Amino acid sequence: MSGRQQPLDQGASIVSTRDRITGVLSPVVTPFKPDLSPDPERFASQCRWLLSQNVGLAVFGTNSEANSLSTEEKIELLDRLVNAGVDPSRMMPGTGCCALSDSVRLTAHAMKLGCGGVLMLPPFYYKGVPDDGLFRNFAEVIERVGDRRLRIYLYHIPPVSQVGITVALIERLLKAYPGIIAGAKDSSGDWNNTKAYLDNFAKAGFDVFPGSETFLLQGLRHGGVGCISATANVNPAAIARLFATWQSADADAQQERLNTIRGIFAKYPMIPALKGAIAHYGGEASWATVRPPLVELTATQQASLVADLDKAGFTMPGLRS
Amino acid sequence: MSGRQQPLDQGASIVSTRDRITGVLSPVVTPFKPDLSPDPERFASQCRWLLSQNVGLAVFGTNSEANSLSTEEKIELLDRLVNAGVDPSRMMPGTGCCALSDSVRLTAHAMKLGCGGVLMLPPFYYKGVPDDGLFRNFAEVIERVGDRRLRIYLYHIPPVSQVGITVALIERLLKAYPGIIAGAKDSSGDWNNTKAYLDNFAKAGFDVFPGSETFLLQGLRHGGVGCISATANVNPAAIARLFATWQSADADAQQERLNTIRGIFAKYPMIPALKGAIAHYGGEASWATVRPPLVELTATQQASLVADLDKAGFTMPGLRS
After folding, report:
1. For testing contact with chain B, the best of A77, A155, A294 (most B CBs within 10 A)
2. Which residues make Cβ contacts (< 8 Å) with residue A238, sequence separation at least 6?
3. Which entry of A30, A253, B234, B242 is 20 to 30 Å from B218 by CA?
4. ipTM of the complex
């Protein structure tokens, strides 16, 4: 792996925090061909549709099956998106891997392409590791990438990663790398944790994105800056509308409607359900394909999901434009 | 990723199960240089020492910090070992990754080099995945590698991976790929699980390795074939001796002595403790280096570990030969 760059001059690295990604982002689901290789063309088309719905691109998130892709596959997909004209400043790719060498390589590549930020999982194989080791992981990535335009969003998703981002760790990272440590996605599903992030760090310009639109309104009312949510893959416009109009009189009613749609998806394995909906409403059956260890919805589940969604008046306008 | 090979002709693939790796194997700890890159020379030297102690090479195991290495780094290390004259037939590299594409690439490379077998983690990021998805993962690897000399040892380590290998999954895999599904390493720490593997499959030629020498004697008495254990990195000769003489009168006394040494290491974070002991008894301080998210033992822990080991009469003969 490449060695460390010169240490960043922190004194000069304090930057405006307002050149930042905010709003609603989708951990974009990754389309696969029948041989299970990623399909860059359908991927770019999906990203364009999401941008047209005012939703940003947290490609390579949990819901993207990012951890079922190799680093090479992610680099290739990112290159293909940018070459297809998708705006990198709207992208916040997931670049946190188990191996420091992979995290450095992928983060440096995202920076080279001009991505607006990166969403970074902690290394997630070894469990019960100390905050010291996690601090060192993020610090090594920052020092080795060596680019003060880097904006890192820490990714807290203990139900899946089993390794979390504590308030104490954020405090230490913010102190060491102000400006570069830009915020967090909180997918704990625990509002108390989101509130602790907000209460401790929002005023210092640390941007908190709840990991579900279920907490969008509550988050915005407490200083959050949007959300990064699985179901922004399928219900982008309505979620983006609440973000844009959260101070309007109908905000609570909007939130309730979002929760209803989210609740339907939550009855099924999430990633196969998102892909099943895109396959159905976009009329492209091949979208249903997932990589192992995931499995597609059964025909019964798929029929039931679509029946539930139709009954709720759900549509995906412009999906197959 | 490369496409599937022609489906393997299972009718012709039943092979003798006795051309197999058995005995004691070490998940070889990986030495790092000061810049945290792997050190192939010290790695080869460590592997040679382990072989001289009658211990085989489960390189890229959990204790090898394998999941803190990229696929490229593992391929390069494996090439360097073989080029340095280390016998690949004594190697059982860990090749199970989160991404199917990585698992296929690494497994195919191990086969190309002539490795005696591979130890395969299930994809471990996504939790609560169905056995169907895990079956499909292993099946895709087998079909894409397309080499009937492949010997897969399934790696069950739920305390770390959180995704396990059930008896039902083994049964299904054995039926689909007899001969290729060669056995398992059980690091559950739960004797009842090891016994279930043994009782169900040992007679069919499925080779079970407990994941700790604590269960070596008990395993051998119930049809096991050895063990793959962290502490085989530091106490190889004594563990190998029990394997070789397990039917002798002093077997229980040997087991007790092994447990005492194991117990000392188990008081500390295991990987840093293994490396700390090698650094001390081999007189090479640089061996202590770990990659994030792990952290080295503190000076106090290191002194305490060495004091405990010295008191127990522990040595590592021939380590720095």
Report:
1. A294
2. A254, A257, A258, A261
3. B234
4. 0.94
